[in-house]
Design goal:
By secondary structure, this protein is mainly alpha-helical. The chain has 2 domains: 3-22 and 136-203, Orthogonal Bundle (Endonuclease Iii, domain 2), CATH 1.10.1670; 30-129, Hypothetical protein, domain 2 (Endonuclease III, domain 1, Orthogonal Bundle). Helices cover 58% and strands 0% of the residues. It has 11 helices and no strands. The longest helix is centred in the middle third of the chain and has 19 residues, at 83-101.
């Protein structure tokens, strides 16, 4: 089996088992997803969704976040962790959106990553889920499982992103992230991978089945 055939097999099995998986962060607009993704750093999607359920009722626009009292916002997002930096970044980010982009979230990756609290991962979440631009999102699941699958040896998220871009067909860039998250939450869990249950085991160099 060639490496191309192995990768094709991995993607086919992911599609077969999970199909298209929607974004795990609840949102109704680009700016809501942007803020939710900032909050998701070092925090579970489940916790973020719990927090944003009330947060987006209290702050109903980019403008309301831009004008938020930082201490009050810190208290509102405290349970997501690192709330001091997150509150500061959210306010600064929304102020920039108002001043530079008339309150709209840009799709250009350089413009996105120039915003406070927005790295390539967050930018690619927005580009892929809001604008439908083929993007690779490297979170902890993608980093860990891509290494298990032999698709990268790197620990650098940016390097992993570009390596995956060179290996995976564009039409799988967006779905790969959400499918790998599904796999990482249920089977290829961080503490003790369930290799005996994994449908990718025959194609995974690290499988201990």
């Amino acid at each position: 089996m060639t490496e191309h055939e192995r990768i094709t097999g991995i993607l086919s099995l992911l599609d077969e088992h999970y199909g298209p998986v929607k974004c795990y962060l609840n949102h109704e607009s680009a700016w809501q997803l942007l803020i939710a993704t900032i909050l998701s750093a070092q925090c579970t999607d489940e916790r973020v969704n719990t927090v944003t359920k009330d947060l987006f009722k209290k702050y109903t626009s980019v403008k309301s976040f831009a004008e938020a009292d930082i201490t009050e916002l810190e208290n509102d997002i405290r349970s997501t962790g690192f709330y001091h930096n997150k509150a500061k970044n959210i306010i600064s980010c929304c102020q920039s959106l108002l001043m530079l982009y008339n309150g709209e979230v840009p799709q250009d990756i350089d413009k996105l990553t120039s915003l406070a609290g927005v790295g390539r991962k967050t930018a690619n979440v927005i580009r892929g889920n809001i604008f439908g631009i083929e993007s690779i999102v490297v979170d902890t699941h993608v980093k860990r499982i891509s290494k298990h699958l032999g698709l990268t040896k790197s620990d650098d998220p940016v390097k992993i992103e570009f390596e995956l871009m060179s290996l995976l067909p564009k039409d799988h860039w967006i779905s790969y992230n959400t499918q790998i998250i599904a796999l990482g939450r249920t089977i290829c869990v961080a503490r003790k991978p369930k290799c005996a249950e994994c449908f990718l085991c025959a194609l995974c160099p690290d499988c201990t089945k």
